[in-house]
Design goal:
The chain has about 725 residues and is an alpha/beta fold. The strands form four sheets. It has a five-stranded mixed beta sheet, sandwiched between helices. It has five domains: about 100 residues, RuvA domain 2-like (Arc Repressor Mutant, subunit A); about 150 residues, Tex N-terminal region-like; about 120 residues, Nucleotidyltransferase, domain 5; about 110 residues, Tex RuvX-like domain-like (DNA polymerase, domain 1, Orthogonal Bundle), CATH 1.10.150; about 80 residues, OB fold (Dihydrolipoamide Acetyltransferase, E2P). A hairpin with a 5-residue loop joins strand 5 and strand 6.
């Protein structure tokens, strides 16, 4: 009977302890999260409604546990593939099996497996086919046999096998020894450490004739890996991808070779010592350094990807949670010169009520006609804001809107970031929403809606197209998508969604719903009318109790028959509110916003076998401010009337701007001239700033001072710390 194949199992208790140690979280909390995730619960639901099981871990911590579980499963899968392959080869010895099972990371597993890997034909495999393995064994042993060189080598000379002479025999056997040395796990681990402490060397590739501005700082550049910032490595990688740069790791090769020789060459008097020295050098330069360098560069890439994705996700979260101009009527303008400005008016619910085109800018300059048409729309629909996309002709259009006479004093003109609006306009979502409208009109609608509710509109666009990341097309796309989807979902669930007005894209990010069920909800709503209660969702085809449990607390039903449906209190906790109300001699609906009555309540009084103290605290807090929007109040940015283009910007100016992007090296700020300026991290604050996200975030309004203007490269250097200081 064949013995069972060795197999590593996913052991939840063991994995939980390892994850808790790595993430520095309580083991009991990690165990609770793992169990909840295993049962199919979503991260937002766990964070908001299962705090008793997780010890109050937040979404970021729960997401980190989820990622760590995936990493643990990937490592176990890799171990099992290696064990299976080695068992099939008959090479799986007990000590090796134990080492593979106990390996702590993928590098260790790969190092153990490397000597047994079936690879393409190498110089060493060719030498083995020539019968030179015994000679290689003799060389590796470094034991003198007492024989002369010719006596040792002559038996291996065989022109018929491709071994023409003694020199060829030595070279072939040396190739086998070199490959053995190069596949030794401990040696590779040691060299990995040496290279990780080396420097990155970049050079301009011969013949490159591209844009010199972007990569010129790296044309002859050395930088210690220990001080290498992730964004700089991403820039180097971009240059390498575009064949502008060569990127390599540099160390003191002679010192490394000397160290390897001390490790490998144990017999100074060995007959073939000189040849083994050459073999050691060949092993390092031809096999070890290129292979391990690739591994180190891959690790650097993974770290840089992780950092870039984290910054992108943070920026996206801030943008999605930007203050909305809620329940305001917006006139959106997609500005242009020759083709005119596309205009769309949306009402307080986001519904399109009018659209047209005006030509207030060059070359037409029909300011009279544009004034008349905009005034008509403003008065007809009682417009609150004019939202203008920040692309071509935006400042010219904004200046026109601010100065024309018919504009009522209460109407405010705002320039809105339009990144990704053109992608939305041509998308299937836009065609489904507005099948009969031109692309440019859809763009104007999107611009207006971005001001009214940034979150509801931006979820319709691929996050990579929103313009708050760097090198987003260079990083691991699967990891990027997972991170961005998670932050979009977190933002949507944090704010809450009106089930009777939300679009399918917005509903799809609610915990437990997804795209198919979101479309089913919208279709049911279109056919049967608005939902009167949360529980009415159970009448939607394929909407089961499990989905309801996950999503109900994040959905809002306003003006329905169940007042609690407009709050973040989960239906599973309605009984607790009703008991609380009965004890106070009122109805549950009477508690909503009733801070006086709730001031007499202690969360501990709600605790029972079904409701723990964390949930009880959340219930009381939510009742005090039901359905509260966590986003700040909207305030428009006021750009200077003195600057309209890059040519108007001069050093020393102090301007107001809005942060559009935050990176590891600083923050980009829109000052209203079609070209964002950079506040370097060293200019963000009077104190030392290690992480710019600790000082500013996307959407912040800043006062900045212009440091320099580079018209050739279209770069503007700004300082926040100088703007904080009083003028002399």
């Amino acid at each position: 009977m064949q013995s069972p194949r060795p197999h590593v199992l996913f052991d939840p208790p063991v994995v939980a302890v390892a994850i808790a140690s790595t993430l520095r979280l309580p083991p009991a909390s990690v165990t609770g999260v793992m169990a909840l995730l295993s049962d199919g619960n979503t991260v937002p639901f766990i964070a908001r409604y299962r705090k008793e099981r997780t010890g109050g871990l937040d979404e970021v911590q729960i997401g980190a546990v989820d990622d760590a579980i995936a990493t643990a499963r990937d490592l176990i899968d890799r171990k099992n593939r290696v064990l299976k392959s080695m068992a099939e080869q008959g090479a799986l010895k007990p000590d090796l099996q134990q080492a593979i099972v106990g390996a702590g990371d993928a590098h260790e597993v790969d190092d153990l497996y490397r000597p047994f890997k079936t690879t393409r034909k190498t110089r060493a495999t060719i030498a083995r086919e020539c019968g030179l393995e015994p000679l290689a064994n003799f060389l590796a042993s470094q034991v003198n046999s007492g024989s002369r060189r010719t006596a040792v080598l002559a038996p291996y000379v065989d022109p018929g096998k491709g071994v023409a002479d003694e020199e060829a025999a030595l070279h072939g056997a040396g190739d086998i020894v070199a490959e053995r040395w190069a596949e030794t796990g401990s040696t590779r681990a040691w060299l990995r450490g040496q290279l990780s402490r080396g420097v990155i060397r970049t050079r301009k590739k011969r013949g490159y004739a591209g844009d010199d501005h972007r990569f010129e700082q790296f044309y002859d550049h050395r930088e210690p890996i220990g001080r290498l910032a992730s964004h700089r490595f991403l820039a180097m990688r971009r240059g390498e991808t575009e064949n502008a740069l060569s990127v390599a790791i540099a160390v003191d090769d002679e010192a490394v070779i000397a160290a390897l020789e001390r490790q490998w060459l144990t017999n100074r008097g060995f007959l073939f010592r000189r040849e083994l020295e050459a073999t050691a050098r060949d092993c390092y330069t031809r096999l070890l350094k290129p292979s391990v360098s690739s591994e180190v560069l891959t690790s650097l890439r993974e770290t840089a990807d992780h950092d870039a994705i984290a910054v992108f996700a943070t920026n996206l979260g801030e943008l999605l949670l930007a203050p909305p101009a809620t329940r305001k009527t917006i006139l959106g303008i997609d500005p242009g010169f020759r083709t005119g400005c596309k205009v769309a008016v949306i009402d307080a619910t986001g519904k399109l009520v009018a659209h047209t085109t005006v030509y207030p800018t060059a070359p037409t300059n029909d300011t009279t006609g544009a004034e008349r048409e905009l005034a008509r729309l403003i008065h007809a629909y009682d417009v609150d804001f004019i939202a203008i996309g920040n692309g071509t002709a935006s400042r010219e259009t904004a200046d026109f809107c601010r100065r024309f006479e018919p504009t009522p004093p209460g109407v405010t003109t705002v320039i809105v970031n339009e990144s990704g609006a053109s992608i939305y306009s041509a998308s299937a979502i836009a065609r489904e929403e507005f099948p009969k409208l031109d692309l440019t009109v859809r763009g104007a609608i999107s611009i207006a809606r971005r001001l009214q509710d940034p979150l509801a509109e931006l979820v319709k666009i691929d996050p990579k197209s929103i313009g708050v990341g760097q090198y987003q097309h260079d990083v691991n796309q699967a990891h990027l998508k997972k991170a961005l989807d998670r932050v979009v979902g977190s933002s949507v669930n944090r704010v809450g969604v009106d089930v009777n007005t939300a679009s399918a894209p917005l509903l799809s990010y609610v915990a437990g719903i997804g795209p198919k069920l979101a479309h089913a909800i919208v279709a049911h709503r279109d056919t049967n009318g608005r939902f009167d209660t949360r529980r009415a969702l159970l009448s939607v085809p394929r909407f089961g109790s499990r989905a309801f449990e996950q999503c109900a607390g994040f959905l809002r039903v306003h003006d329905g028959s169940e007042p609690l449906d407009a709050s973040a209190v989960h239906p599973e906790s309605y009984y607790a509110v009703e008991q609380l109300a009965a004890g106070l001699g009122c109805r549950a609906s009477d508690l909503l916003g009733n801070t006086a009555a709730l001031g007499t309540v202690t969360p501990e009084s709600l605790v029972d076998s079904r409701t723990g103290l964390p949930t009880a605290r959340d219930i009381v807090s939510e009742l005090a401010a039901p359905g509260r929007d966590p986003r700040e109040t909207f305030e428009p940015v006021r750009f200077s009337d003195a600057v309209h283009a890059l040519e108007d910007v001069v050093p020393g100016m102090r301007l107001e701007g809005v942060v559009t992007n935050v990176t590891h090296f600083g923050a980009f700020v829109d000052i209203g001239v079609h070209q964002d300026g950079l506040v370097h991290v060293s200019e963000l604050d009077n104190r030392f700033v290690k992480d710019p996200t600790h000082v500013v975030k996307v959407g912040d309004r800043l006062q900045v001072e212009v440091l320099e203007v580079d018209a050739r490269r279209r770069r503007i250097g700004l300082s926040r710390k100088r703007a904080l200081a009083p003028r002399d």
